[in-house]
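Changelog-adjacent note: as of this version, every example in the card shows the full chain rather than a window. The one below runs 183 residues end to end.
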Amino acid sequence: MEPHSLSLSRRQGYACFGYNGPKPKLVRLQGLGGVLWTKQIARSCAGCSSNRQLARELGVADSTCLARVAALQDRGVITGFHAAVDLGGIGRSVQAHVSIKIRPQALPTASAFCDAVADLPDVIAVYMVTGEADLLAHVAVPTTDELREFVLQLARRPEIADIRSSIIYLSRRAKVIEPLDGP
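Full-length structure tokens:
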């Protein structure tokens, strides 16, 4: 059976979308682009390449889907779209986490250094963290020799008090993380 959609008045506060049973599943909405839609779009969008495909997955009209996604973008819930990249396929098969302790331990220094590290071409992401290190950088380089050079160049900076690297052997990433139910 094809997915169906059912329109109910907005005042009722319910909506129905894609189902594969004899009865539609009605779910409570929390406003346009609310928690329900965020969850549905997050679950369905992971494998979709177009608004039409996402709308079909959700069982709604293309225009409805586009409006809901736009509302989530306007609210800052959806901050962008990306392509998943095979790092080995672009010549960066060695990934590592580089733990960095800086001095002085002041927010302006840490923030400026974090921005500088994030701008380096081998850095995928950088995080300001608690614990042993102040920053954690996720890097991708072609070889372990390149990783050593990256660490040595970074270690020459005066802000560095300590630096350590851990090569990543295997990585798994959640395709989607769902929002928590709101009030």
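Structural remarks: The longest helix spans residues 62-74.
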